[in-house]
User: Fold this.
Amino acid sequence: MVYTWCVVLAVMLVVEFATMGLTTIWFAGGALIALILSLLNVSAGVQVAVFVLVSVVLLILTRPFAQKFVNRGLTLTNADALVGLDGVATSDIDNIRGTGSVQIRGQEWSARSVKDTEIIPKDTIVTVKAISGVKLIVAEKESHSHENDGKEEEV
Assistant:
């Protein structure tokens, strides 16, 4: 079994280095532990079980962190970079009529409201929530200023 685990480990590492996509690194970890157990003369059944268990545990515990690390340098496309930005409705946004546009960063985009029954009036400041095809999905910008709810602030 020592040679089997060496081959499995080598194949997993070659695939990982070839793809650089964090696809097989967890199985390489499982193969390494199984190789160590093989060198200690542990039974083949236990080696296989530990290989599977270690691979799954590594996958579950480290994949979310690894994906965040790998995708950290990911450059968003022009459209993806608009999500979260504010813009101005340049025409009424009405999903039922299929009308609406927004200007962001000097560019005009077709837009639809997050809520199908909501009509967002022209000149309203909106926030891009998502993108569907070539249309921005927007919602009216939430105002965080309540201006003291009409009350004068005492000093």
Notes: Residues 2-69 form one domain. Residues 145-155 have pLDDT under 50 and may be disordered. Strands lie at 86-94, 99-104, 107-113, 119-120, 125-132, 135-140.
